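User: My instructor asked us to take a sequence, write out its structure as tokens, and then describe one feature of it. I'm not sure where to start. Here is the sequence I was given:
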Amino acid sequence: MAAENCSDGIPNPNPCYLQKFRLYETRSNFYMIGRDKNRIIWRVLKIDRLDHSELTILEDPTTYSEIECCDLLRRIHEGNRSTGGLKFVTACYGIVGFVKFLGPYYMLLITKRRKIGAICGHTIYAISKSEMISIPNSPVQSNMAYSKNEKRYKKLLCTVDLTKDFFFSYSYNVMHSLQRNLCMDVTTVVDYETMFVWNEFLTRGIRNNLKNTLWTIALVYGFFKQVTISVSGRDLKLTLIARRSRHYAGTRYLKRGVNEKGRVANDVETEQIVFEDVPEGYPTEISSVVQNRGSIPLFWSQESSRLNLKPDIMLSKKDPDYEATRQHFENLARRYGNPIIILNLIKRFEKRPRETILRAEFANAIRFINKSLTNENRLRFLHWDLNRHSRKGTNVLALLGRVADHALNLTGIFYCQVTPNCRPEGLLNLSCLVRNDECSAQIPYDKSDNVVKLVTDVGTDKQNCSEHIKPPMFQSGVLRTNCIDCLDRTNVAQYAYGLMALGRQLHAMGFTDSQTIDQNSPLAEDLMGIYETMGDTLAMQYGGSAAHNKIFCQRRGQWKAATQSQEFFRTLQRYYSNAYMDAEKQSAINL
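Assistant: Let's start with the prediction itself. The structure tokens for your sequence are:
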């Protein structure tokens, strides 16, 4: 949701956001009243109900007070008294979008929300209830609105449950990483074009019409979990976010590999944020680290079968120069910088070749692409057969931790201090990032991502501040992990990376003397539980069952027979979902 600029063309350093809405109707129009959190700014949106074929939306440019807005509603009621007057429809918390199938337009609203966390003083919400409202008045609706196909499309869209795994914020760009948010130009509006906003298409009409995003919310799909952890006697907030890409999205066997634009299936960005849980509600030090997972970027597929639990892998040879693969890694470099480190967890040997087919072709693709790259920008590629190492009885998490440590040495993490005198709603302004003049050369600059050089601003007490300021740290590059499904094995590797990264984050913030965390510590156990929950959530979205967590179960000392029973059940659940449920689920995503 975009900020309300209270001055002509000049961005407000403390912007306001519309957060609560009330929808009213007359026979000819809907009127939506939006207000900010502090009940200072009131705005009005009018939606025409007489034209069933076009969506006509008008925004009143006037900013009202509460009394003025009530007076306006009274006058609208009086002017429409002959046709029934003005009637209250529902309270809501933002527009998800507008959709049209064969008949009228429908408006999707959030009617109940719940708080699931906060970042830098900005609240993050999930959806508890949504509603689809037909725009045209009943007398002007065409017969198509009641047709069999129209009802089928409505039912199909409703199978996408907005109350599960979608989240949003009015004032924080939750579709972007913390580092990008802190380094972005403060005048930048909410970026609906990003790959992580799932209702981009549904909101395109109103956004293009009004030239703002005051009335809509940007929905991110994936996973969000925020918990309190205790380190050295101090409480910290640990936040784990998974953002699923809307591009080439779908279910396990129906979306595999890469498409012609270099977008891969099951593309998920994972961010781990840590800050101190201070009473004021916003941090003075904060750190984040980002990693990525995604399907092997080749043209390959598997046909789901009701007779075969493990369908054959079919590799296409239609891209001999690996152009789509190259585009994929170029996109990663634009998003995260270099180096790109690839951790490939699939099998290195099989009696009947399946995964090994992709392993060999993936290696060929990386070799081919690296020939045209400079040594500095070359893709760093590591094959590591997780299944083989786990069968040998080795400490898989310890070995993966060494890989993670190497990757973090190459990419670094993001860390910064923020001025304690910044208010929560202004915390993401550039002036809130504290640093001294010696750090200028360390700050990245990337025009393509609208990242700007951070200006030196240490608040009002520059003389005393510089003694206590730590230089900011920036992440450049990313670890990209994959197995076949990018679910089970990948999640184990992502936990190992998250644990190693957490050690560095806590060390940077001064909470620990060491950069590593003991794998047997309660903190490691807590983090494993969060990653396990994330893995189950992402696996349900893409694969139709919770993740296979054999390594996590073994780590906790769970009874082997119980683990085997759980794994068998999840295999059957995933098979049933893939064979019988995925076609309808894919159609809903496409719609």
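For the description part of your assignment, you could build on this observation: DSSP finds 13 helices and 20 strands in the chain. Try explaining in your own words what that tells you about the chain.
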